[in-house]
Amino acid sequence: MHQLYYRHTDPIGILIELINQQATIVLQANYKTWCKVDSLCINKIEQNLKY
User: Whole domain around residue 21: which residue ranges?
Assistant: First the structure.
């Protein structure tokens, strides 16, 4: 069965949070300048998106 996720991005489209249907944050990212990842918290999901 497929799970639906909601993407929350900043104004230029960079992923900040990914939330499932139960409103649980399953991925959360914080960035430094020039989109360098400062911290990444992955909970219960495999992230295969490539840009």
Answer: 5-42
Model confidence pLDDT, tens digit, residues 11-47: 988 888 989 898 988 888 888 887 778 877 777 666 5
Residue 12 lies in a domain: yes
Question: Which two tokens mark 10?
Answer: 């900043």
pTM: 0.64
In a domain, 23, yes or no: yes
Closest CA to 16 of 29, 34, 31, 32: 29
Chain CA centroid to CA 48, Å: 11
Query: Which of 20, 16, 21 has the alpha carbon at shortest distance from 44?
Result: 20
Per the listing, tokens 């991005």 go with 9
